[in-house]
Every structure is written in C-alpha cells, then in structure tokens.
Design goal:
alpha/beta, Rossmann fold, binds nicotinamide-adenine-dinucleotide, 7 helices, seven-stranded parallel β-sheet
Amino acid sequence: MKMPSFRLEGRVVIVTGAASGIGAGLARGLAHFGAAVGCVDVSAGGLAQAVADIKDSGGRAVAISADVREEGSLTAAVSRVEKELGPLAGAVNCAGVHDSFAAESMTLQQWQRVVDVNLSGIFLSCQAEGRALIRNGGGSIVNVGSISAHIANRGLRQVHYNAAKAGVAHFSRSLALEWAEHGIRVNVVSPGYTATPMAKSPEVWPLVEHLVADIPMARMAEVEELIGPAVFLLSDASSYCTGVDLLVDGGAVCW
Ligand SMILES: NC(=O)c1ccc[n+]([C@@H]2O[C@H](COP(=O)([O-])OP(=O)(O)OC[C@H]3O[C@@H](n4cnc5c(N)ncnc54)[C@H](O)[C@@H]3O)[C@@H](O)[C@H]2O)c1
C-alpha cells in the first residue's frame, strides 16, 4: 500500500492576496511544506516581506504585482511565475476585500467593488491559472471562501460580501465538475473569523466579542490554522477530493 504524501516539494503554486493576512500566512506555509510560491497581490507592501521570509528559510518565491480584477494582469502573473519558478501545479486564490453598508443605502458601486474582487476576481484567477494547469496536465486550485457563504453573520451589514462568497462556493463546485476531465481539482477553504487586518477593520472589530461568543471553540482562528487545510487540498493526500468546501471555523456554523 502506497502512503499518501502531504508534501508539496517540486510544486509551483500561486497565492493571490499574498501581501497580508491569510494569503501572506499561506504563502509562507506552502513554502514550508516544499512549494515554490508565486506571491501575487495588488499591494506591493507586504509582498516583498513574504518573499524575503520564504527565501531566508531556503525556499523559492517571486513577488508579482497584479490586480485580480484584470485578466491581462493575471495572465502576465501566471507567465512570470512559470518563467521564474517552473510549470504551475496549483493555486490558492485568497485576494479579497470587505466593508459594511446597510443594504437599503448600499450603492451599486459599493456592491460592485466587493463582487468584482471577491467573486469575479476568483473567476478570472481560476481562468488564468486553469489555462496553465490544463497545458501542464492537471493540478489543484483552492479558492478562499468564508463562513459567510454558509451563514449570514449576525450584526454585520454585508449582503454584497455574503452573496459574493456564496457565489465562490457554487462557482468552485461547478468548476470542479468542468475541470475533472483535465485532472484539475477545485476546492474551497472557508475560514471563520480569523485574526487579520480584515477582521480588525472598524466594521468587524467592535463586534468581535459578540461574534466569538457564537463560536463553539470560543476564539478566532490564527492565520497558521489555515495552512494545514490548504496544504491538504493542494497535496496528493486529497487526490480524491474535488468540489469540497472545507470549513475552518471552530464550529461556528454548527449552531
Ligand atoms: N479574516 C477573516 O476573518 C476572514 C474570514 C473568512 C474569509 N476571509 C477571506 O480570506 C481572504 C483573505 O482575507 P484576510 O483576512 O487575509 O484579508 P487582508 O485584508 O489581510 O488581505 C487581503 C489581501 O488581498 C489583497 N487584495 C485586495 N484586492 C485585491 C485585488 N484587486 N487584486 C489583488 N489583491 C487584492 C489585499 O491587498 C490584501 O493583501 C479574503 O478572501 C477574505 O474574504 C477572511
């Protein structure tokens, strides 16, 4: 019997949203498990640090500025990753934005900004990555969703965010069906409340005590706790998993 491998040695993986929070943690985590990481973000700030940390630990990484709302920018990012690190084998699409507005006064622009990054950005990222993976004979994509695809967060006015995240879940399931024939697995990791700049935003932070009271494990996640689930879904250990939405939420949606 051949034991499955959780390691990512020799795999080139793109992480979008790699300059901050969960994406920055996942970029470092995937490198720790052996992947060469294309770190992609619209903001240059934390990208250089993530890449420097990976290289200091003996890993391989490249920092690429790209906007997940722009098809051309993503195509160029994938080409550069392949040129510098090798053929693409996987991706974690983590770039996202969040804000809060009452539904009755939310403008179309406010709605559109969140849907453009959090849902259309996932589509465009998967498309650019998928074209390379089809060419390379397969791979694994992990889209970062949210518990907000499963529940409407008590006290948070974010119909745009919740709708976009629900879209990510069903988009990913649909893509898993389409791309099984190409040997590409498509799964979702759905974090609960996680201690990042997004969760410390003025809309969310004042509610944290109240939100945490609704979590059976009675605390937020640390970014590191998302690494194991992402490594699992990218590695051969999950070779029969596709279309899965893996909740990492301390039991928050169990109530
Ligand atoms: N923090 C939480 O509690 C939580 C919970 C559930 C889901 N999530 C999801 O996890 C993901 C990461 O969130 P986070 O908490 O780490 O947030 P964060 O704000 O710390 O990081 C988000 C990153 O995405 C990048 N980004 C934003 N727009 C972009 C664009 N157009 N193109 C490329 N990059 C862009 C930002 O520059 C930033 O580096 C998001 O998809 C978010 O919805 C977060």
